[in-house]
Fold:
Amino acid sequence: MTPTPPAELAAGIDYFFAVRPDSQARAEIANAAARFRRSQRASGVPVAVDNLHLALCPVGRPERPQLSLERAMLAAGAAVRGNAFTVTLDAAMRCIPSGGQFPFVLCADPVTAVAALELRKAIAAAQRAQGLQVSGVSSFHPHVALQHGPAIDAIEESISPIQWRAAEFVLIRSFFGQASHEVIGRWPLASAPAPAVVDMLAELANMPDLPAPPDE
Structure:
């Protein structure tokens, strides 16, 4: 048997970088998914609650890798420097079909999209440094998939915002045809420094005395 080249995907395995919702956001997303399945009578395979994620960046195409694919992805993740951000999901819609399936998703708002794109660019650049080329980096519509299934009526509507703080990003190993995700790497995102607290009394005390008014 010919071994799989170390810089190529093994059969049935994929990798991607993502941010994952916290427990409260997962519960809110699951509740939203259940409501839409009932109201739209949408059939399909729901995404397991523990697998909910907002994908940031796929594995790049190997061009000049120096490491095995998994080690290159881990090295890329460790090299990324990004900032924490708040994820806000504020709309539900059916996406363009993928592999004959019609993903039903919750979409991120514009502010989230800007922050997630910056992190996506940083991850793609880190992969490029490891010999993995990511194409279409700027073509990005961040979302959380709720289910995959056959076509349903067109849906696009606003929802009550669901939020969580993305304080880390992860590398996930997934298995085709299986509802199985493994987090194999995680890295913190930097928190913005807290604004300096201004002591107004001290500021006033340090102000120079006002000049005396001129004699009339």
Residues 62 and 132 are 5 Å apart (CA to CA). The radius of gyration is 23 Å. The first helix runs from residue 23 to 40.
